[in-house]
């Protein structure tokens, strides 16, 4: 009888420890809700715009990798951020709700840093200051051309993935053309020399 009582107490203590450990693990996996104004360090009532072009197949499935397929949401598009967590950003643009799914493991950048790259308070002509009118239009259509600066490439294609381009000062940046093909942007003297599409 004493043995049975001891076994029951031991089992209940063991179960309590397992439940406590599970609670600690689950609490570590909770989604963090971020305040966009704090993350972006925005003044009150500041207007927000996209800082670079975003590609998407459907508005609810944008990705941080910015795979260059589907439709284009051009840089300088006015947005209203609806919500921001460490795994997604919801925002409205052109009367549509967009959801960008974020995986820090695929970008090696915390959500806060990613959001500060993605959004700006500068309108399109300020973002692309220094571009000729013809180049500005190409950038807005997501078209790269020889002679573009690194900043103009970032505006046109977005920042290169740190997984594929660990050093942003390197002479080659790699982007996703689709899930299989990639684009290599080759620089010489910090200007685009050529662009290669690889299978």
Features:
single chain, 199 residues, alpha+beta, 7-stranded mixed sheet, 3-stranded antiparallel sheet, 7 helices
Describe it.
The chain is of the alpha+beta class and 199 residues long. It has one domain. Helix content is 32%, strand content 28%. The chain has seven helices and twelve strands. The strands form three sheets. Strands 1, 2, 4, 6, 7, 8 and 9 form a seven-stranded mixed beta sheet that branches. A three-stranded antiparallel beta sheet has the order 10-11-12, with helices on one face. It has a two-stranded antiparallel sheet with strand order 3-5.
Topology of this protein?
Blueprint: H1 2-28, E1 33-34, H2 36-39, E2 48-50, E3 54-56, E4 62-63, E5 71-73, E6 78-85, E7 88-93, E8 96-101, H3 104-107, H4 111-118, E9 119-120, H5 124-127, H6 133-140, H7 150-157, E10 172-176, E11 182-188, E12 191-198
Parallel strand pairs: 4-8
Antiparallel strand pairs: 1-6, 2-6, 2-9, 3-5, 6-7, 7-8, 10-11, 11-12
Rounded mean pLDDT score = 86
The backbone outline, from C-alpha atoms, is globular
Give the total of beta strands: 12
Question: What Rg do the Cα atoms give?
Answer: 23 Å
Order of helices and strands: HEHEEEEEEEHHEHHHEEE
Secondary structure tally, helices? 7
Number of domains: 1
Spans of at least 5 consecutive residues whose pLDDT stays below 50 are: 13-28
């Amino acid at each position: 009888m004493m043995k049975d009582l001891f076994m029951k107490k031991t089992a209940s203590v063991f179960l309590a420890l397992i439940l406590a450990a599970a609670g600690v693990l689950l609490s570590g996996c909770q989604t963090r809700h971020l305040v966009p104004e704090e993350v972006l360090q925005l003044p009150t009532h500041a207007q927000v715009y996209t800082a670079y072009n975003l590609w998407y197949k459907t508005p609810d499935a944008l990705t941080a990798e910015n795979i260059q397929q589907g439709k284009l949401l051009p840089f300088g598009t006015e947005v209203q951020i609806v919500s921001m967590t460490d795994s997604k950003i919801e925002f409205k643009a052109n009367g549509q709700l967009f959801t960008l799914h974020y995986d820090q493991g695929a970008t090696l950048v915390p959500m806060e840093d990613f959001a500060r790259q993605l959004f700006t308070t500068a309108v399109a002509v300020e973002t692309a200051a220094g571009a000729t009118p013809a180049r500005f239009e190409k950038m807005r259509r997501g078209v790269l051309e020889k002679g573009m600066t690194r900043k103009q490439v970032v505006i046109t294609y977005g920042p290169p993935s740190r997984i594929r381009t660990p050093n942003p000062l390197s002479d080659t940046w790699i982007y996703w053309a689709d899930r299989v093909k990639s684009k290599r942007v080759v620089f010489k003297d910090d200007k685009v020399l050529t662009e290669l599409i690889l299978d």
